[in-house]
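Run log // design_07
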């Protein structure tokens, strides 16, 4: 169920850079790494992002937490925002969710708030769904 005023946007993305650095012993049941990732988005969500991820994994499953800075457009609004998200996987089952950091939106994305849902299709296509609201700003009331 979504709240009144919530708008849903969809986009596809490609990971264009993946720079991982291990910080635990390889082969353990808790392999840990830091990753810097860059993404390119198309669709109702278009632009680029840079994310820092902390990852954990083993032969059974994996998980991550990330802070991601997005710059581009959401719908017709242009600006930047920060998304914090997490995910966990066990075999082919995976779950991922996140939230836009309150107050992080700039320019046309000022006042943005809501959820971010990251998925990957069986064919490998990455997708992002944003379920957002926009707080009215002083410039909105005069538009």
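design_07 sequence
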């Amino acid at each position: 169920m979504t709240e009144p005023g919530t708008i849903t946007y969809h986009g596809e993305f490609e990971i264009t850079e993946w720079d991982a650095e291990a910080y635990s012993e390889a082969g353990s049941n808790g392999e840990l790494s830091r990753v810097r990732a860059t993404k390119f988005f198309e669709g109702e969500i278009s632009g680029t992002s840079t994310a820092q991820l902390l990852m954990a994994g083993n032969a059974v499953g994996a998980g991550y937490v990330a802070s991601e800075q997005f710059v581009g457009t959401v719908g017709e609004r242009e600006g930047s925002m920060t998304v914090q998200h997490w995910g966990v996987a066990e075999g082919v089952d995976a779950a991922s969710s996140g939230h836009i950091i309150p107050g992080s939106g700039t320019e046309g994305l000022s006042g943005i708030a809501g959820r971010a849902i990251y998925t990957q299709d069986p064919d490998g296509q990455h997708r992002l769904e944003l379920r957002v609201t926009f707080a009215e700003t002083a410039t909105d009331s005069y538009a």
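The domain at 7-141 is CATH 2.40.350.10 (AOC barrel-like).
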